Amino acid sequence: MIASDDIHDLLAAYAVDSVSPEERAIVELALSRDPQLRGELDDHRVVLGILADAVDPHPSTPSPLVWQRITAEIDGAEEVSPRLASVRDIQKQRRFSKWTATMAFAAMALALLLGVSVYQLQQERRTPVFEAAIQELLDDPTATVATLEAAGDVAAEARIVLGADGVGYVYADNLPPLDASRTYQLWAIVDDRVISAGVLGADPDDSPFQVVGDVAGFAITEEVAGGVPVSEGETIAVWLRNA
Amino acid sequence: MLLLAKESVETVSEKQSSGAGALEPSDANLVVAVARFDQGALSELYDRHGTSVFALARRLVKSRELAEEVTQEIFMRLWNRPERFDPSRGSLRSFLLADTHGRSIDMLRSELARKEREKKEHVMDVRHTADIESQVWTNVASEEIRAAVATLSDGERKAIELAYFSGYTYRQVAEALGEPEGTIKSRIRTGMKRLKGQLTASGLMP
């Protein structure tokens, strides 16, 4: 048990980063339980921020290389998502390959047929929550219907119906359930960028999402539970508009 | 269940450039845009706060190269985990500077731990720093801040200066000043409280 004055003294020392790792843990535990203490820490930080700015009124600036390194790291982070990057590469390659495009179109047509069959077979299993909205979109000729095909060894498939207003639904009940520490995540390719369209969970069902812009493709990946800003996991299923 | 889509094609930075006479987005709005992977928003935040982050890091780690490394890390943390910033708990600048201080101190201490043999010299450094006339406050241009610092007792000023601006633990400060550890912690706290009162009275703090 720590005395009240002690924790406030320790908090001030914590604010200036002058405590030991053990004391840091004690303070952080206290902070997690006491909103007043958090307010006190916030005040300390405001004071210190003002002092830090004041003692160096004409600071030297960091080299322009720092910002270049930041952007390179961000861009690099996108590239360390090799499988999604490869999706983009495939998209680009296929855009310029008539033969590939023809084959892919045939495969997609087959997949769509299969997809319709799977969809019909699964009608009764699906949760009815978004059923009406999905059906409405399926009847809408301006909507995009996409079947995401397995991208690797995992037998997986998902279907997406996307309205012209960018609201869509993914029915991903044909994905194998994952461990609770993992999740499926939906990605959209918009303007040559791969962006997250939502975290689907470990055992996904029908889920709505929204994307703004012209969607060139979708992918579902397996990620750590909670989802990630940039994919680090395996691509499970893919659909490309111009394939 | 699917959560929110995290991106829109029109970014905050694009909105800013397309809207003639548009209001400058707040730091909090830019952080929201960063959460949507808007690199333009991060660039704007870097322009606003990058120099302060770098200056504090450089003061602590005493190396341009290491300070630039810290600066890069701080903005990458903001990019990767923007949800760590809670606008209800203070300004982004305070948040970034607190993060910068913590990271710089970590860097400084790991370097010191690596050079274990320098431990004694390090304590002597604290004594030396404490003995010399303080240089920290000499460049402070703001009268209000100079006045606030002037209200601190000598012991409070030295404790805050050595702990915050020189990166020493309160135990090192206590050893160097020949004071009990509890006294140093207490002086840091009372000094901070006094500064808050003064800065609030002069309108520099809400």
Q: Biggest chain pair contact, residues each?
A: A-B, 67 and 73 residues
As a percent range, the share of strand residues of chain A is 15-25%
- What is the helix/strand order of chain A? HHHHHHHEEEEEEEE
- Physical arrangement of strands within the biggest beta sheet of chain A: 5-4-7-8-1-2-3-6
- Global outline of chain B: globular
- How many structural domains in the coordinates of chain B? 2
Any idea of the CATH topology of the largest domain in chain B?
Answer: Rna Polymerase Sigma Factor, Chain: A
Summarize model confidence as the mean pLDDT of chain B: 81
Can you count the helices of chain A?
Answer: 7
How is the biggest beta sheet of chain A arranged?
8 strands, antiparallel
Low-confidence stretches of chain B: 1-12, 14-21
CATH architecture of the largest domain in chain B: Orthogonal Bundle
- Coarse structural class of chain A: alpha+beta
Overall number of domains of chain A: 2
Question: How many DSSP-defined strands of chain B?
Answer: 0
The tally of beta strands of chain A, per DSSP, is 8
What's the gyration radius of chain A in Å? 25 Å
Name of the CATH homologous superfamily of the largest domain in chain B: RNA polymerase sigma factor, region 2, helix turn helix motif
Distance between the termini of chain B: 41 Å
What are the SSEs and their pairings?
The complex is a heterodimer of chains A (243) and B (206).
Chain A: H1 4-15, H2 21-33, H3 35-54, H4 64-79, H5 82-95, H6 98-122, H7 131-138, E1 144-150, E2 157-162, E3 167-174, E4 182-190, E5 193-201, E6 206-210, E7 215-224, E8 235-240
Antiparallel strand pairs in A: 1-2, 1-8, 2-3, 3-6, 4-5, 4-7, 7-8
Helix pairs in contact in A: 1-2, 1-3, 2-3
Chain B: H1 12-18, H2 27-35, H3 39-61, H4 64-80, H5 92-114, H6 119-131, H7 143-150, H8 154-165, H9 170-177, H10 181-201
Helix pairs in contact in B: 2-3, 3-4, 3-5, 4-5, 6-9, 7-10, 8-10, 9-10
